[in-house]
Amino acid sequence: MSFSDRQIRNLFEIVKIVHLSPEPNELCALLATRVCPEGELVKVYFAKLHQDGYFRTVASFGYSRESKIHEYQVGLIRSVPMPDAYLRSEVVIFNKEELPLKYPEFQTIDPRTPWESLAITPTISGGLVFVFRLQVSLKKSRSTQLYFEAIAQILSFYRKGSQEISFTVEESKKLEIESISPDNNELKDRPLTKRQRTIMALIQEGLTNSQIAGEIGYSESLVRQESVLIYAKLGIRGRVDLRAESSAERVSR
Length: 253
Prior knowledge:
By secondary structure, the chain is α+β, with helices and mostly antiparallel strands. It is about 45% helix and about 15% strand. It has eleven helices and six strands.
C-alpha cells in the first residue's frame, strides 16, 4: 500500500491549512480543493457534538442556501452515517448506491445536486465530524481508507482560537490564491465531470456565477472554483475564451 503523489501533496497542504487555523468557513473552502484523491472539487461541512447529544453544523462549503445546511442537526442515537462513524471512531466511506441499503433513515441534505461518494471523517478529539461529498466514485481500497484516516488525524489538531497559532493576512491571501490556482499542466485535457459540464453549458449561455448557483443548487463560491478547474482542463484563460469558442462553433455549423 502506498499513497499517490496527489494524496501525499493533499495531506501536506491540509497540514499547512490546519497549522494556520483559519476560520471554520474558510477551512471548509480550503479543504474543498485538497481532499479528493483525483483533484476534483468537493462539498464540505463539519458538525460538532453538543452536550444535549446532537451534532450541529459548524461551517460548510458548496451547499446552497436552500439546503439549510447551517440548520442541520442529527441526534447521536440516529441510525445515519454521521453518528455511526463517530460512535465507531472510524472513517466511513460510501458510494451513493450503498447508503439507502445500510441506512434506510438517511436523507441527503441537498437532493438537487449530484454526487457519487460520501466520506464521513470523525476527528480523534474535539467531537467534530467532517463530511466530504465527492462527485467521483471512490475506490474501496486500503489506500483510500488510510488516506481519509490520515485526513481525520490531521483535522484533529484544528483548534480555532488557539493563541499558539497566528493566521496573518498575508498567509490568508496566499492560501486563497492557492485554493483556486490548480496545476494547469496536470489538469489539461482531463475530462470534465458531470457538474463541470453543466456549469460550462450555463457559462456559454451567458449566466453569471450567481445565476448558475441558483439554477443548479450550489453555492456561488463552489461555482466560481469549479469554473477555474474547467478553464484549466480546457486550456483556456477564462469565461471570455469559453464563450468565444462557443460562438465560433455556432458560426461554423
